[in-house]
Specification:
Helices cover about 25% and strands about 35% of the residues. By secondary structure, it is α+β, with helices and mostly antiparallel strands. It folds into three domains: about 80 residues, TATA-Binding Protein (2-Layer Sandwich), CATH 3.30.310; about 140 residues, Alpha-D-Glucose-1,6-Bisphosphate, Chain A, domain 4, CATH 3.30.530; about 150 residues, 2,3-Dihydroxybiphenyl 1,2-Dioxygenase, domain 1 (Roll), CATH 3.10.180. Strand 3 and strand 4 form a beta hairpin.
Amino acid sequence: MHGPDGTDYYNFNRFIEILQPLRIVFEHIEPVHTFRATALFEKMGESTRLIFRMLFDSAGEYQKVKDFIVAANEENFDRLELVLKNIKQNNMPVNSDNTANRELSISRLLNAPRELVWEVWTHPEHIQHWWGPSGFKNSISKMDVKPEGEWEFVMHGPDGTDYKNKHIYKEIKKPEKIVMEHVTGPKFRMTVTFEEKSDQTLVTIHSVFESAEQLKEVIRVFKADEGMKQNVDRMEAYVKAQISLRTQLKTSNMARVSTYLNFPGNTEDAFLFYKSVFGGEFSGSGIQRFGSLAPMEGQPPLPEEDKQLILHIELPILGGHVLMASDAPQSMGFKVNFGNNYYINLEPDTRAETKRLFDALSAGGNVSMDLQDMFWGAYFGSCTDKYGVNWMFNCTAK
């Protein structure tokens, strides 16, 4: 910002959510005062009601600015009103894109690597658990993620109503962009982009409907705008749960091999049994529960029964071998079947050895997650080899 006296004021903001044309959320990161701002746009006839909220990090931060912040914002919006009046009087184009009145968009910055976010969008075993508004479930009959490939599924509403859906993929650019057309009513084209932001991913969903009237109707009948936000909320919660379940709580860089197990909710019972058989004590940080995770902003708290589930547990058994495990309950969008609930977990002491093993074991098999640096500090990946054995790779060496 360039002050009238010639002083320059540096500002850094990060957009958190864009729901066109209803809401903008951004965080003011620096300098001095940190806060989250939300701008809401409410249509009132030919006018627009703008609501602007600022949430500061603490009461102390608010006290520092309360004497001038309201007047400063009022001056901001007085200037905005003058700009809009000038645009209207001079018939200046607000948006040259003639699809603006039939678009619905939202963006969300996720604390997850792009490869993982791409994975939960393109694998039916993931997307079936989070797609759609709150309370909806999905049965996917076909998902062929390639140009002209079809995605057919039924959404089961919380009231028991079933909604048949079919998409045709038009463009797949891994891991950057997906374009697909919804060919069952209401018809629209959806473009999803995945932008890498260091160890985060900015996901933008942009839907263009056939007409402005159609968009108004789906908002009126199906509450499509709120449904899109709920859909993104569910995606964010699912990605966070995936990261929690994949995180390995290793305390040293010493190479080791372990076995990693998933249970549908009875990990603690199983490991108390294994402890009675093998003896010894739980290693690492002991029993880690989902209740220890910080709640996600804007999301309902975990049910009390889920808070008691196991996030991570380790038990040394024979010859220094370690059993590890976590719960993967259906309530969090997971389905544990015999064959997908175990991994041989390799923890090499160098990144080069990790890549060598990954490349060798994944050859001719299926890569479920490419090797990549994860934000918790591990060089991580997973695959199923050509004989159907599941492998997990976790290297904490730099």
